Amino acid sequence: MALSEHDVRAIAEYARIGLDDEELREMTAYMNDAVALLQPIVDFDPEGVEPTFHPIGDLSDVMRDDVEKPGLDLESALENAHATDDRFFRVPSILGGGGLS
Amino acid sequence: MSCFDALSAAEIARGVAAGDFSAEEVARASLDAIAARDGEIHALLQVSEELALSRARELDEARAKGEALPPLAGVPLSVKDNMNLIGSRTTCGSRMLEDYESPYTATCVQRMIDAGCLPMGKANMDEFAFGSSTETSYFGKTANPWDTERVPGGSSGGSAASVASGEVTLSLGSDTGGSIRQPAAFCGVVGLKPTYGAVSRYGIVAFGSSLDQVGPFGRRVEDVAMAMNALMGPGADPMDSTSQECPVDFLEHLEDGVEGLKVGLVPALSEAEGISDEVRAAVRAAAKALEDQGAEILEVALPHIDDSIAAYYVIGPCEAFSNLARFDGVRYGYQEPGCATLAEQSEKSRAKGFGAEAKRRQMLGAYLLSSGVYDRYYYKAQQARTLITRSYAKAFERADVLLFPSAPRTAFKFGEISSPTEMYLSDMFTISSNIAGNGSISVPVGPGPESGMPLAVQLQGPAFKDRRLLTFARAIERAFEAEGSVAPACAGKGGEL
What ipTM is given for this predicted complex? Predict the structure, then answer.
């Protein structure tokens, strides 16, 4: 099933990647080429085969001792942000209608 | 006086320890070589002169006090620019992270520095490691030191080129689908992708979390073995839950030879369509060289290996979409000014911060993970991974290592492959070991008689048998006398020691 520009626009919105009209055309062509390359997976009949989500099959949760340790300090954590306020990241309004909140 | 690029890592460390030259002199020789060579090659995005000189002076002071020096004392190192190093930016070759200052240092980088390496700079790469030619970096292309009209491979193209040009002795790269081995092959250097979990990934910008692995580049197998000792010697990293304990000395069996060991050839791969005659001949010559040294050559099958590319281009983009969701312009990264809402800021920051291939991979991942599509692709790709892993396990019951091409052909020209999906096929021989997680290495076998460009072969081994790979790689290196080769146009240019 070919993906339309309408479909690809919806995926871009979900992925939060703005595309202009030309990019949308190119992306739609790419998506259809890429999905065609993946056809062997659709045709693949793996009935009864367990999936492997991780190459180290028997890896279990690794927990360290519950001991307080220093983490990334506040200054380092904020140094790459464009807008901060005291100990916080500043962002535009979530619903609109306001400035930085 | 001679150029430092003629020395192995061990020779540099011995020279520093013996006082034949100081670590600072080596650092200045490397800086000089970078100044003389990198204008044309553009392997490095940043040269960390102060960090390198400061580490060199520490080593020289330690020697002056009579302290024992670490095994890689004074060895110049570059690291791929997806690895954090305090005092440098970590850009991932992307506008998104153009100004990103490393808030801490990656474990792998720290371990190399602790072992005595001098951090000379950050190496260029395909944006966020999405690519096989280093053409997608926001900061410009890297040229192949053997022919500057050709690509160095990718995504760790800057790492491979910095070693092949002799600007540094060692480099670290990361390999998600061939990003160490393919550029190593294109640039004529040794590149090892260790077993998944062998080397800590703490401090590396993630691409595909079930596929990514860090590994070293060098011009000699011995240099790569020394780097592996530095990376794994200190044991598992508590900061990375995939990091495994693997206490082996990678130098111990390097010269053991391969007599009585078994090498598996996979005819379906070695004779596959699309492989150049030179590459086909190189694999046959490597098999003959190993046979001449007493190894037994046999044919093995790898059923389901043909599904690797499709499985990879499902799993990789899905994991990439998940990992790159963090780049929203709030905590770090490019931020579009003047947006009215958080959603608008996120969408516009990602639109302008990411390049075309980074957008394509994330879009594909977003689609494949969407409701109704997931079961047809993602889940089945993970089932294919089970069968590919079983194929390897069966092959390794008969063979100690498998011998493949590293890439279907030698380095191609800039712009020669313009279709993204065609570019994906250049990783046809490397992807399967990321899917299964086992270790693999690309070893140069000298320049091709027709192309004049470096040729290489790939060895793959069972999980956590990476030391065995190095023994085989050393046997090939010995046969082809390929060790230590610097790209002819660069060798000896600057870098007097």
Answer: 0.93
